[in-house]
Amino acid sequence: MAISLASQGRFGPSIMLKHVALSDLELGMYVHKMEGGWFDHPFWKPSFLISNKDRLNVLRKSRLRGVIIDISRGKDLALPSGETSPSESGATASIKRRIEVISKRGRREGYVAKPISIGQELAGAHAIATRAGNQLHRTFMAARLGKALNVSAVEPVVNDIFHSVRRNPHAFSGLMRCKLKNETMFRHAVSVSALMVSLAQKMQLPRHDVHQCGLAGMLLDIGVSYLPQTLEPSSGSFRDADPKIWQQHVVLGYRSLHNDNDLPRAVLDAVLQHHERIDGGGFPHQLEGSEISTFARMATICDTFDFLLCQTGTACGLDPAKAIDQMKTMEGAFDEEILNHFVESVGLYPVGSFVRLQSGKLAMVIDEDAEDHMRPIVQAFYSLAQGEQITPHRIELARSGEQDCILGIAELAGLGLPDDQHLREMIFFSTYKNVG
To answer: Where do the H-state alpha helices sit in 247-332?
Structure first.
């Protein structure tokens, strides 16, 4: 039998709470609190309306001891046959209207519109990246100042990135790859989040898992904010610090998120394990193979790829296509099946890669071709035969009228061109003039 508790407000009872067994849960009930730890359920929010069967089934199959429902905001526990609640009719009508609104919203969110071009999505992606950077700056600074983390403030950012990647899987990541004016830590966090979302979609994970992947990518390096700032190396990157210092960030990040927030276990595992290796040679616990969570194996790949693109105090950033090649040679580091999915999600020649064409031209990949992932869209800018820059022009390699193809990754050294990062930004933003 359910136990009822009334919370008296200024104008009378404002909350009506009941303890309910998982088997008695029904659509339309409002979950006020879940009785159990964060290991026992996968939900981001501690309270919500049970508005669809998927959420109901997850609750019923969870390891929770039970649930406390708020009958002032949702459906009451079914009464014995013949009994009715005085407020049943009004409350039921209100709940039905609310479920209908949420269901319609869910159908709209579940609708996948026809993919749009990278050019059409870039302006929106630029605005999202700016908001994401600002929010992450506030979140990371709060951590550095010893304040409690407000991870819920990051959730809307992840949702924005999720929808951007759905509209075009390459616009957001391509923008972050080619844009120079980003603070390294925040750019990396936002980039990895987008890569995680794209990879999760390529792996056809459930939608709530895709969101959690994006959140995990955003928070992977939150622990860096807890490292002693007096020990920060001159390069500005803790990755160049003593490994004993750097490796502490995964445990520090895990503890801060575990202590301050009711985050899903999958997200916490990704934060703790994203520097583990399949062969057991990683840190902090030298896990191997299936001991490493799926999200963490995904995060290892996305984190490594983006880091290889970043210029640090000790190394220049790699060309995206070179980064893919290097990751393929890192035996024992990654889950090979997930790595293959990752290459499919970003392309063998990701946006921002410099390539050498059969025609003797050098070009940069500016978009993927939706019908032929092996023959992307490029912007040619240099003629090897003439030994000079040429008027930039777009080449759609997959189109039947084009006989050109990619021979390999371009070597730009000694050609008198700007450094790779500046050249990449110049070509990208001259191609897409409507961005920022």
So the answer is: 248-260, 265-273, 294-309, 320-329
